[in-house]
Amino acid sequence: MAAQTLRIGTRDSQLAVWQATLVQNLLKEAGIASELVYIKSEGDIDTITPLYDLGVTGVFTKTLDAALLNKRIDIAVHSMKDVPTKLAEGIQQAAVLKRASHKDILVYKNEQDLEAIGFVNGEWNEGEIVKRETSNVKGCDQHSPFTIGTSSVRRIAQWLHRYPTNKVENLRGNVNTRLRKLEESNWQGAIFAAAGLERINLRPEHSINLDWMLPAPSQGAIMVVCREGDHQAFDACQPFNDEATALCTKIEKDFLRVLMGGCTTPISGLAVKKGETIQFNGNICAPDGSDLVSIEIIKEVKDSANVGEEAGKTLLLDARTQHIIETVRNGKQ
Ligand SMILES: NCc1[nH]cc(CCC(=O)O)c1CC(=O)O
Of all protein residues, whose CA lies closest to atom 6 belonging to ligand 1? Predict the structure, then answer.
């Protein structure tokens, strides 16, 4: 069959288009012509309701899945962390691009405010971490609580675990909208994925890496999907599949899936390949930050394929994990 122009489906946010264009350029390098097809997702249309209230996984991916299955497009490009742990029936992973920064960052307004969260002289001052157990709340004055914007249950939970007296406000929309809403608010800051802002040159100077926060499974990675059995589309994507990122994100997604997935549970996970070893760190957190259970597993790359599953299953044996899962279930259903 003569080579056809590959149709790349994408959401129409600036970040989504940037990511789809990256894939288009990579295809071009491999000698494959392609075009972008813009498709609106439910997650983009309703930017008021927090995602955890929409109650469905895959709000960003569903419409593109449908377009693939209807053959309106041949591949779809997603921020991998928005892709449900189980792909839709008839859809397969074609490639995972080399990961950019996996980190969450705080975009803040005033340098002076940072002392309240223990960020002093350009460093996280571990001695100043607010411990839930201590009544003497250091580094976080009860009278001037830090307020941050984010609608991610994972970010809320980890933030409140570290800063129990802080306030969190709902902040939805694509990254451009969220930056604007922060500017218009009276909050001290808001949390973003570094990759999302850096890709489109929007990372403000007033931002710091939240090195202590574990990212969403597969944050910073881009996934390309195609129809199951579409060998032409699948083969076209192999030149830019990054094996290390594919392995690390598989481990992180497995961890999420075993622990129940969904976007309603604060679950974080990061696998990093260092030489011939994989280091995995994961945690599950109570939505109000009152508890956090974490796990670390280090294995040789050759033995690491099931590390995410193993980590998830190990955490499930912990009574505190069970308690967190029950809290989430009872709260949301
Ligand atoms: N849920 C929205 C979303 N999905 C992917 C990214 C950024 C890119 C990435 O994390 O890979 C973002 C923005 C954010 O979390 O701030």
Answer: 196
Contact 38, 12 (CB under 8 A): yes
CATH number for the domain whose boundaries are 104-209: 3.40.190
3-state secondary structure of 311: helix
Q: 101 C-alpha vs ligand 1 centroid, how far in Å?
A: 11
Strand order across the 207-209 sheet: 167-169, 147-149, 189-193, 104-108, 207-209
78 CB burial (10 A radius; 0-12, 13-18, 19+): buried
Domain with CATH 3.30.160.40 in the chain: 243-333
Residue 68: what are its φ and ψ, rounded to 5°? -65, -50
Q: Which of 65, 82, 104, 254 is catalytic?
A: 82
DSSP 294: E
Say if residues 200 and 63 touch (Cβ distance below 8 Å).
no
pLDDT string in tens for the chain (333-residue length): 446 899 999 999 999 999 999 999 999 999 999 999 999 766 555 555 555 454 445 777 888 999 999 999 999 999 999 999 999 999 999 999 999 999 999 999 999 999 999 999 999 987 545 555 444 444 444 445 789 999 999 999 999 999 999 999 999 988 999 999 999 999 999 999 999 999 999 999 999 999 999 999 999 999 999 999 999 999 999 999 999 999 999 999 999 999 975 557 899 999 999 999 999 999 999 999 999 999 999 999 999 999 999 999 999 999 999 999 998 888 754
CATH code 3.30.160.40 for 243-333: yes
Q: Is any ligand 1 atom within 6 A of the Cβ of residue 252? A: no
CA geometry: angle at 206 spanning 171 and 78, to 5°? Answer: 50
**Which CATH superfamily includes the segment(s) 1-99+221-241?**
Periplasmic binding protein-like II (3.40.190.10)
Q: Kindly provide the ipTM of the predicted complex, given to two decimals.
A: 0.95
In the chain, ranges of CATH 3.40.190.10 domains:
1-99+221-241
